[in-house]
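Supplementary Text 2. Reproducibility record for the structural model of the 131-residue chain.

All settings were left at their defaults, and a single model was retained for analysis rather than an ensemble. We include the record here because the model underlies the residue-level annotations in Supplementary Table 4.
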Amino acid sequence: MTTRRAALALFALLFAAALCRPAPAAPAPSPAPSPAAKEEAAYALIFGTVWTADNQPAYGVKVRIRRAGQGKGKWEAVSDHRGEFAVRVPAGAADYILQADVKTKAKGPKPEAKVHVDNDERVDVSLHLTE
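Retained model, structure tokens:
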């Protein structure tokens, strides 16, 4: 009979503990995003291909992009196995300089191209490497 009382006492204790457990707190509601945050910032796309001297796609070439008139590149991309790269730049009319960052035998200027972007358009460009 004592084991039965002990079992009932244990059951009552567990039941009381379950009832006394605090309820989980409801998660705080997240603030509603503002309409400006919902819209993604407008951008233009500079899409390009890097070619070797023998007209083969150049893999792994770092391309630095900067606005014309600025000294240091602000954006970078690396060409993929097809020689292609793509970079988002802010929308709006602007000129950009693209420069392939490669080491050449001759100490000359690095291959570069200049493109003009209007608003949120896509611009295609090719960079041809020399030996």
